[in-house]
Amino acid sequence: MKTPEPTSRSYKLVPFFEDALADAREILNFGSGDGYLSHYLEARPRAQGRIAITDVDVQDHSTTGRTPILFDGARLPFADGHFDATLCMYVLHHTPDPDPLIAEIRRVTRRTVIVTEDLAETLLDKALCLYHAIRFDHWNTRTGRFGFRTHEGWERAFAAQGLRLVRSRRLPRVSALTNTLYPVRRALMIFERGDA
Q1: What is the pLDDT of residue 8?
Q2: Rounded to an integer, what distance in angstroms lies between the CA atom of residue 172 and that of residue 169?
Q3: pLDDT at 143
Q4: I want to staple 109 with a disulfide (CB 3.0 to 4.6 A). Which of 46, 86, 100, 174 is the partner?
Q5: CA distance from start to end of the chain
Q6: Phi, then psi, of 180 in degrees rounded to 5
Q7: How far apart are CA 68 and CA 154, in angstroms?
Q8: Helical H runs in the chain?
């Protein structure tokens, strides 16, 4: 299979969370976007034939030949605990009320939830998040207003659904790893179900 040209910044964060996927076989990529993160994770030599990733999104934005399952915005079409792990990369702020989505993610995930989110904390971050919401207002026709939160706000939202924070790290605005500038403050958070 030809490797697609990457357009997602999420795959560059894999070294920060791949250990949390060590025992995962069935993985949900919630808000899969261009599909590159899923392709990248499945194409790694040590992962081939060992993991299966299901892409879900509200629209098909795939540039990789992967076809996501389209999500109706309310209920994921999977049984309780279907996935070992769920990835949720830069997705939840695209809805004004992420809490029902977090509940659905928890419902279909047996163990680990990995989240990366923009953080509306300083005045600069709030302004940049507002710009992001305006720039991507085509999302509004599908999801309504955006729902940006602080780092602690995201952690509380997941804790309210019975997900325990395992570790968290703030991501730099200028990343030596990715060699890019992304001006909004962000965080990578790894949660586990409290009953796992």
Answers
A1: 53
A2: 9
A3: 45
A4: 86
A5: 36
A6: -135, 160
A7: 26
A8: 14-17, 36-43, 99-108, 123-135, 140-143, 151-159
37/130 Cα distance (integer angstroms): 26
Return the pLDDT at 12.
Answer: 78
Distance separating alpha carbons of residues 173 and 186, to the nearest angstrom:
8
Residue with tokens 């279907």: 82
Rounded mean pLDDT for each run of 10 residues along the chain, 196 residues in total: 53 87 95 90 78 93 91 93 96 87 97 92 72 56 64 94 95 61 81 85
Sketch out the chain's domains with CATH numbers.
Answer: 10-193 (3.40.50.150)
* Overall size of the chain counted in residues: 196
Instruction: Give φ, ψ of 14 to 5 degrees.
Output: -50, -40
Neighbouring CB atoms inside 10 A of 56's CB total: 19
